[in-house]
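Next comes one such specimen:
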Amino acid sequence: MPRFALKIEYDGSPFAGWQKQKSHASVQETIEAAIGRLEASEGIAAAGRTDAGVHAFGQVAHVDLTRDWTPFRLSEALNFHLKPHPVAIVGVARVGDDFHARFSAVERQYLYRLVSRRPPLTFEVGQAWRVGHDLCPKAMQEGANVLLGNHDFTTFRSVDCQAPSPVKTLDELRIETRALDVGTEYRFHVRARSFLHSQVRSFVGTLERVGSGHWTPADVQKALDARSRSACGPVAPAHGLYLANVRYGTDPFADGIQADDTGN
């Protein structure tokens, strides 16, 4: 059976998360329903299970199909049947049987968007976390630097996290500042091989406290050393988080469909 990798973007607002559920709409179920309009399959496996309200523009999944589709035709057919849901297949590649969207991944990259401005958001409501006060990016970056490297991240993982170990290696936590016509956007670029449940949102919520002056960078160190969930700052809301990219040893989409591909 041919195996295909799918690169997926979606607005997580109307979904109860990636994973298929009995009584709530999910991204996985939506894509599997579109596949089912083409042919029978045993379902799809994704690189990461995003929570309710979390978005993605770089999610990756794989599926085994019977028909030997061309990447272009498969993407066109799936996107047709995904309408009107806010989900799009933006890349398709034929991959080997040993490729697994989750287990073959060597790195995951997340983006968190935080907007500092007094007025509420209008056009980007549900796409970024708005706070109504100023933030200090220098202090937030100093706090973020404390978290880099290999640590026990018990403080920064959900009590519902099922990972066997709280020890992870954080490769990047970089804060980018963008001036807006009204306010300032802070983009948190976070990179690691794998993450704990709610880890990125826990980081951002804690660093927002640093930026607002309620915490110091030294307080982040104390929270990390405490290895206790009770020492964490507030958890940032889900709607500011995006699964931005999943990296593999060899990019499966290097020879896949392109934006200007005509399918010829």
About this structure: The first strand starts at residue 3 and ends at 10. The chain has two domains: 3-103, 107-244. Strands lie at 3-10, 44-46, 55-64, 87-95, 105-116, 129-131, 149-152, 167-179, 184-192, 241-248. The mean pLDDT is 95.
